[in-house]
Backbone:
């Protein structure tokens, strides 16, 4: 993959400058990360449980 300049964070590297092969590799890596994250039972930093989220928006229930 194209190396980011010194001091630049890798996620700030311009994707416009990547080749098709590099974009495919990046996409595969992101898909694998997504699978791993979805397979983890991580504690929620916000206190919102996964079953309380619908369509990506937390559904807060106030009592």
Residues:
């Amino acid at each position: 993959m194209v190396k980011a300049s010194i001091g630049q964070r890798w996620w700030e590297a311009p994707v416009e400058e990547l080749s098709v092969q590099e974009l495919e590799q990046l996409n595969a890596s992101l898909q694998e990360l997504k699978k791993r994250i979805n397979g983890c039972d991580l504690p929620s930093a916000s206190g919102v449980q996964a079953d309380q989220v619908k369509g990506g928006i937390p559904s807060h229930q106030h009592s």
Observations:
- The beta strands are 53-54, 57-58.
